[in-house]
Design brief:
The structure is a homodimer. The first copy, chain A, is α/β, with parallel strands linked by helices. The first copy, chain A, has ten helices and 15 strands. In chain A, strands 3, 4, 5, 6, 7, 14 and 15 form a seven-stranded mixed β-sheet that branches. A six-stranded parallel β-sheet of chain A has the order 10-9-8-11-12-13, with helices on both faces. The longest helix of chain A is centred in the middle third of the chain and has 13 residues. The two termini of chain A are 21 Å apart. At the A-B interface, helix 2, helix 8 and strand 13 of A face helix 2, helix 8 and strand 13 of B. Chains A, B: GO terms for molecular function: 2-alkenal reductase [NAD(P)H] activity.
Chain lengths: 381, 381
C-alpha cells in the first residue's frame, strides 16, 4: 500500500510555566500507510475537526500536580477532542465510513487504540464541529470521572478551570449539557421569570440565555466588553445586557436591569457579582452555581456578605458538576438537536482552517482572542 | 355577679433603648367581673401559661421602626402568647371549658376580642405550656404574615430576630415547626448521615438534633459554653458537641468531629462557622439556612469565602421561613406529639411560678439567664 503524507502538530517540549506559546508547538509532516497494523483492535481515522480547550494547558505540563489527565508526550502529535471519519476498524462497534467524536490526534490521520474514548455520531444533520462543543459531553469513562469511586474529582476539575495563566470566561468543555443541566435541572424555570446570567458570552452562558428565551423568560446577561454586550443583544437574543466593567455599583446596575428582582441567577463568576445578585433576588429565587471564575486567580476568594438574603427571600443555591448528569445526555440531545436544526439556537464558533493554524488558535484562547468556541478544520473531506 | 381579684403585669412606659429592665414593668392588682360584656363576640379566659419571647422587646418600643407588630400600650397588661381556659364565649367556635392558645394578656383573667388570634388545643396529653413553645406556630393571620400579599416580611421578621440589645442564641418563636421544616423538608435526611448543628442549644437547634437522632443520623452540635455542651451530650442525646469559643480553628475542629465530612448542616449562625463548614461538606451535602445569628449585630456581615465548594461538592444551600410552611403544621403535630408523649423528645423549659415572677423572667431572656424556653405559670388550675 502506498504511503500518504500526514501533517502533524507536535508538542516541542513541556511548558514549564505561564501561557503556552506558538513556539512550544511545531507543525511537521510525516508519511503513513493508510492501514491498521495486523491484529489491531483500534481504528484508523481521517481527522476533520479539532477542539481547542483551556484544559489542554494542563496536559502541556509535565507534572501531574496541575492536571489529572495525563501529560501529552513531547515530540508526539497533540491529543484532544475531535471529529473524524473511520477509514478502517479493528473493533466491531465501528466500521469504515462511520463518523466519530472523541480523543484523537492533531494530525491528518490517526490510529486510535483507546476506542473506549470514541463515540459514534448518529445525527449528521448539524455542523459536525458542534460535536467538539455544544454537543460535546465527556463521558465518565476515565476513572477520575466516575462519581462514587472515591477519586478526587476536584483534581480533574482543575484541568477544566482556568489555570492562573488562563483568561477567564473562556470555554471549559461540555457547554451544551452544562447549560442544559444547570438551567433546567437546577433552576426549574417558569415562563415569565427574570433570569440573570453572568459571563453571559461564555460558552455556557450564551446557551443558558437562549434556553431561557425558549422557556419564555426575560433574560439579561453581563459580559466584559461592549462588543460582547452587542453580541448578546443582537446575536444571541438576550433581552438586555451590560458591561460589568463599566458598572462601579453592581447592585445599582442590577436594580436598573431588574426593577422587579431576579428569579433565576446562573452563576459563573462569584464574588462581588454574587453579593449584588443576593441584594436583588426575588422570593423563591434559584441560584445555579456553575462556576466562580472571577475568584480562581485570587489568592483569597472575596467574601460574600449577603447570604442572609437566602433566608429572607427563601432562596435555593445549588452547585452542580455536569459529570454526574451523564444519564441526561440523550434527553439533552433530543431537546437541543431540533432547535439547532431549526436555527433557534445560535452557537458561536471561531473556526480556523488547516493544521498550520492550530498552534495560533490554541494559544489564542488563553489570551481571549476568540469569540466563540475555537475549532480547527483539518479537512472538509 | 361578684368581682374577683385580677393580678396584672403592665408596661410602665415605652422602653426607649437598650435592654428592658424589671422596673419598666409593674405588677398590680385590679378586680374584674367574670362575665363578658353584653353582646360581646369575644371570649373570657383564665390564663394558665405565658410565653417570654425576644420579639416582645420590639413591642415595648413606641416606634414602629423596630417592630412590625404594634407597640404595647403603657399602663395596660402586657400582651403575648399564652395558654388559657375559656370561661365564657361569645363566639360559636369556642365554648366554656375549651383550652386555647394564642395572644392573651399578662394577667389572671383576660377578655380577648381578637379571637382570630386564638387556637383551640385538641391534644391535652402533653404539657400545656408546650403550646407556647415546641408546639407553637404563629399562624398567618396577621396581614404581615401572609406571603404573596406584597407586605414586607423582613420587617416582621425583625421582631423575631434579636435586636441589638438582645442576646444571640435565644428563643425566637415557633421552634418546633421551624426545626421540623428546616430539617425534614429542606435537608431530606437519610439514616447514617453526618449532621452538624450550630447554636445547637437554641430552641431550634436542640430539636433538630433530636429529630436527627430519631432519623438515625450522627449528630454533633456547637454551643457557646461548656455547660451547654454538657447538656447537648447528656440531656439532648447529641453524639458529640463542642464549645466554639474554645476552638481557634473551626475548620480543624470540624475535621476532628467529622473526619468523614458533613452531610447536613443546620445553619443558625453564619459567618466563620459557615466558611468552616463549607470546607468540610461531603458530596451532595445540604445546608438548611435557618438564621445567621452571629451576623445580626455586625455593621457589615463577615464575608463567606468558600462558596466555590458548593460546586466541587454539589451542595444545595437553601433558606426558608417557617411562615410559608403553615400547611405542614398538622403533619408536624402528628409527628411530634407521639414522640413527646413517649419521652423520646426532650424539650427544655425554664419555668417560673406566678405573675410576680414574670418581669424578671422576661428580662432574663435578654441576658441569656434561662436555659430552655422561658415560661411563666399563672395558674395550674
Amino acid at each position: 500500500m502506498a504511503e500518504v503524507s500526514n501533517k502533524q502538530v507536535k508538542l516541542r517540549d513541556y511548558v514549564v510555566s505561564g501561557s503556552p506559546k506558538e513556539s512550544d508547538m511545531v507543525v511537521t509532516s510525516t508519511t503513513t500507510k493508510l492501514k491498521l497494523p495486523e491484529g489491531s483492535k483500534g481504528v484508523l481515522v481521517k481527522n476533520l475537526y479539532l477542539s481547542c480547550d483551556p484544559y489542554m494547558r494542563g496536559r502541556m505540563s509535565k507534572s501531574h500536580d496541575i492536571s489529572y489527565v495525563e501529560p501529552l508526550k513531547p515530540d508526539s502529535p497533540i491529543a484532544g477532542y475531535g471529529v473524524a471519519r473511520v477509514l478502517e476498524s479493528g473493533d466491531p462497534n465501528f466500521k469504515e465510513g462511520d463518523l466519530i467524536w472523541g480523543i484523537t490526534g492533531w494530525e491528518e490521520y490517526s490510529i486510535i487504540n483507546e476506542i473506549h474514548t470514541l463515540f459514534k455520531i448518529h445525527d449528521t444533520d448539524v455542523p459536525l464541529s458542534y460535536y467538539t462543543g455544544i454537543l460535546d459531553f465527556i463521558p465518565p469513562f476515565l476513572p477520575s470521572l466516575q462519581p462514587n469511586k472515591g477519586l478526587n474529582l476536584s483534581l480533574y476539575l482543575f484541568t477544566l478551570t482556568p489555570l492562573p495563566s488562563l483568561q477567564p470566561n473562556k470555554f471549559v468543555g461540555m457547554p451544551g449539557i452544562t447549560a442544559y443541566v444547570g438551567f433546567y435541572e437546577i433552576c426549574s424555570p417558569k415562563k415569565g421569570e427574570y433570569v440573570f446570567i453572568s459571563a453571559a458570552l461564555g460558552a455556557v452562558g450564551q446557551l443558558v440565555g437562549q434556553f431561557a428565551k425558549l422557556s419564555g423568560c426575560y433574560v439579561v446577561g453581563s459580559a466584559g466588553s461592549s462588543e460582547k454586550v452587542d453580541l448578546l443583544k443582537n446575536k444571541f437574543g438576550f433581552d438586555d445586557a451590560f458591561n460589568y466593567k463599566e458598572e462601579p455599583d453592581l447592585d445599582a446596575a442590577l436594580k436598573r436591569y431588574f426593577p422587579e428582582g431576579i428569579d433565576i441567577y446562573f452563576e459563573n463568576v462569584g464574588g462581588k457579582m454574587l453579593d449584588a445578585v443576593l441584594q436583588n433576588v426575588r422570593e423563591h429565587a434559584r441560584i445555579s452555581v456553575c462556576g466562580m471564575i472571577s475568584q480562581y486567580n485570587l489568592e483569597q476568594p472575596e467574601g460574600v456578605q449577603n447570604l442572609m438574603n437566602l433566608v429572607w427571600k427563601r432562596v435555593r443555591m445549588e452547585g452542580f458538576l455536569v459529570f454526574e448528569h451523564y444519564p441526561l445526555y440523550p434527553k439533552f440531545l433530543e431537546f437541543v438537536l431540533p432547535h439547532i436544526k431549526e436555527g433557534k439556537i445560535v452557537y458561536a464558533e471561531d473556526v480556523v482552517e488547516g493544521l498550520e493554524s492550530a498552534p495560533a488558535a490554541l494559544i489564542g484562547i488563553f489570551s481571549g482572542r476568540n469569540i466563540g468556541k475555537q475549532v480547527v478544520v483539518v479537512s472538509h473531506e
